[in-house]
Write a structure and sequence with these properties.
This protein has 210 residues and is mainly beta. It has 3 helices and 12 strands. The chain is globular and about 45 Å long.
Length: 210
């Protein structure tokens, strides 16, 4: 579990194919992320996708990304900067919102422009995720916890509007976004469970108790 508060911007520095076309092994420079308390098998969110540390060497760590993960995420198949966050511990302050590190879909930037001292980010999300977005609700974009300021339901998609402050741009990879950029999206955990509760219809009658 994560918070969506990016701890450091790292960089994918090498990509090696795994045996039998299983996927790829990435070697990532951790940047300012402290690896002293990271053990093999620990989880680190990379651009919002929860991955397992399989090796450590100096300021680098390695992860194995399966073919399935490569199909369901963006930004893990090329060299370049990535948002990093270690798994949440119970003693930490929850500064963002609860993020599972399981990417729900890809969005695409349709607008990204400076307005005053902040930036207006607009993302077109898949229509099947529309029911999970709400005004002042939470969404994780590339692993960054953000607040939805407006939602537009379109014919085949959903458009979400987000305000980015300079601090967010300075400390995440979101500053590199441009119109057309693909991003990883994770919907709010609470919205996910609410949607399931609304859909659930018990198949076994609940017996009356005396």
């Amino acid at each position: 579990m994560f918070t969506g508060i990016v701890a450091a911007v790292g960089r994918i520095e090498s990509i090696q194919p795994l045996a039998e076309n299983y996927g790829q092994r990435l070697s990532i420079h951790a940047g300012q992320l402290d690896l002293s308390d990271v053990a093999l098998g620990d989880s680190i969110a990379i651009n919002g996708a929860c991955m397992t540390v399989v090796a450590k060497h100096g300021e680098h760590f390695d992860i194995d990304v399966s073919r399935e993960s490569l199909l369901r995420t963006v930004g893990l198949n090329a060299l370049g900067p990535v948002n990093l966050e270690k798994a949440l511990s119970l003693s930490q302050v929850l500064g963002g919102h609860l993020v599972s590190g399981h990417v729900d879909g890809h969005g695409h930037v349709s607008q990204f422009e400076e307005i005053g001292e902040s930036w207006h980010l607009v993302i077109d999300a898949p229509g099947e995720l529309a029911r999970f977005f709400a005004y002042k609700g939470s969404v994780a974009v590339q692993g960054v916890s953000l607040t939805v300021n407006r939602v537009e339901d379109l014919q085949d998609s959903c458009r979400i509007h987000i305000n980015l402050i300079p601090h967010t741009l300075q400390n995440t990879t979101l500053a590199h976004l441009k119109v057309g950029s693909a991003v990883n999206l994770e919907v709010d955990l609470i919205a996910r469970y609410c949607e399931r509760l609304m859909q659930f219809k018990p198949t076994i009658p609940i017996s009356e108790t005396s």
